[in-house]
Model the fold of this input.
Amino acid sequence: MEEISRRSVLAGSIGAGVAALGGLGLPFEALAAAAPRDPLLVATSGGLVRGRIEEVMQGRKGEAVRVFTGIPYGTAARFAAPRPARAWHGEWDATRPPRAAPQPEGFDPLPATQAEDCLQLNVWAPAAPGRYPVVVWIHGGANETGWSGAALTTGERFAAQGVICVSVNYRLGALGYCELGHVLGRGYAGSGNNGIRDLVLALQWVRANIAAFGGNPGRVTLMGESAGGKNVVTLMATPAADGLYARAIVCSGGGQTVYNPGEAAAFANAVVARLGGRERLLVAPFPAIIEAQVAARREWPRNMAFRAVVDGMFLPQMPLTRMVEGRVPRVPLLVGSNADESRLFLSPAQAAKPLWSQQVSNETMARMATLNRSYAQAYPELSEAERRWKLLTAEEYGMPNLRLAEAHAARGASVWHYRLALPAPGGPHRGSSPHVLDVPLTFDHVTNPVAAQMFGYSAAEQPVADAWHGAMVAFIKGSAPSTPAWPAWPRFKADRRASMVVARNASVVDDLDRAERALWGE
Done:
């Protein structure tokens, strides 16, 4: 596509965005004067941002999309509630990668600058002007690792299909999920929910600014995977987020992995002790905070140490409880999990060892011991490792997501449930459907080298990715999740419990988890 034609199709979106911002009480004349007819210059509530053009191949055809990265949506002092980003003068260079939240080392070096001032987001938008639906992606990583610039979750494929994709950074680890009101004083009460507060602020930014990029603020879908999926459900149970989204997609999430105030205080005390005392909380360099949180997490007797806090105010109840009681917005929900989630975390040798508490996210060890015996009786043909994988997959993902589907559907909301049962074609988890296997499908990135390394994905999986990604796009655009390659996907209802089982040949299965539900007493 010639550059001149790109500019012509993009130019109209600038004036529309400036007009939308004028309605927010910003000086329209000043913004209009500051934003000339430049297709990659957008006026936001913080100031002008300049992006870039990227060409996306759709079959044999190239599609131009606009990309804006590292836009500040907020700022926050350490352990304090976030505030809107400070306005800037001139143009913000939105072609640079976003900063990442401070975090420990992961499997691979993080290709980003880490900084406490990390409240930034990215926008992938179609080239042509419009009022496009929006999907806001919340990354996973146990609320301790991850960032909005990961190669597997860039949103250009959504933009090429008429959906604006926004991906968000939020504070992680102790800097985002450590309740310190009892340590630092009343001014820091609520710090255990700062990661969620960041996400609420990001949604408010989207509501105020996305029209400037050609988006429809009334058609926003929340989408997250793993901890990101849990955070989506937490946002659904957070009154401050009400009205900021219209749909939700929860991939491998859940609505039970939260702290009560006593648990939150106990974990915070452990972090403070490893840091060397309360007086270091506000002055220690952030690498020292990360070192202390890692030490505390390694000794913590539960999986996923960094979680939101049910404080009775910002987060009034456990998200699942609030959903059961019908206190969450009855938005359409797409929810599900992978068939063998826990295989990503436990090798065969680790899975064959006795169950221990740091493998368990939601249940008590007494209940897990009972379930472990029940699984041994129900599945004698499986090895000890295979039963352990099955039990832990159900504990953190399968059952919690099924409970979400049941609770939301029982209140009259439209719900669709899935199970990804696509065997990984290669990599260390070949033949199983582990945690994260869905992410390259969701973003249509199965030919990405990272996807190839992790799961052996290649162009051979493109038909599955086309169908999965297409069903997501259909849902985000306002209909049922659907694709010509799959059978019709029925809504999840108690009388049938229909699930789409996604593999190379997708199928609808009723009451997919009937045998396991019986073991769980559900």
